[in-house]
Amino acid sequence: MLYVIARFRHRRGALKGGVVGTLMTNLGMEQALAELGVPFKRAAVGDRYVVDRLIEDYGQLCGEYSGYIICLD
Q1: Which of 30, 20, 32 is nearest to 62 (CA)?
Q2: If DSSP codes are grouped into helix, strand and coil, which group holds residue 9?
Q3: Integer angstrom CA distances of residue 22 from 13, 19, 33, 39, 45
Q4: Where are the strands (E) in 5-54, listed by range?
Q5: Dihedral over alpha carbons 2, 29, 38, 57 (to 10 degrees)
Q6: Contact criterion met (CB below 8 Å) for 68 and 51
Q7: In this structure, what are the phi and psi dihedrals at residue 60, rounded to the nearest 5 degrees?
Q8: Whether pLDDT at 65 is above 90
Q9: Is the pLDDT higher at 9 or at 59?
Q10: pTM score, two decimals?
Q11: Span 20-62, pLDDT tens digits
Q12: Coarse DSSP helix, strand, coil percentages of the chain, rounded to the nearest 5 percent
């Protein structure tokens, strides 16, 4: 779902910054985002670390393997 949201926003020009996932995020998603030209950053596992990295990198979309997705906007 994180990839689908990122791709949708990217195509509409509404994705600001990159996407943040965890060390456990599927490599396929990272590669698919790279094909779109969307930056992807990894953070330690845990919503706290993912959100901190998102804010640090001025992004707006992150998620974790456990299933949550955070959109700062």
Answers
A1: 20
A2: helix
A3: 24, 10, 14, 14, 5
A4: 19-22, 40-43
A5: 70
A6: no
A7: -140, 0
A8: no
A9: 9
A10: 0.89
A11: 999 999 999 999 999 999 999 999 998 889 999 989 887 889 9
A12: 40, 20, 40
d(CA 44, CA 32): 21
Provide φ and ψ at 35, rounded to 5°.
-60, -30
Residue 16: C-alpha distances to residues 45, 46, 55, 65 (Å): 23, 22, 12, 22
And the tokens for 63? 């998620």
Residue 20 carries which side chain, given as an amino acid letter? Answer: V
Residue 51 carries which DSSP code? H
Residue (of 32, 51, 68) closest to 60 by Cα position: 51
Q: d(Cα 8, Cα 12) in Å, to the nearest integer?
A: 6
Give me 64's structure tokens.
């974790």
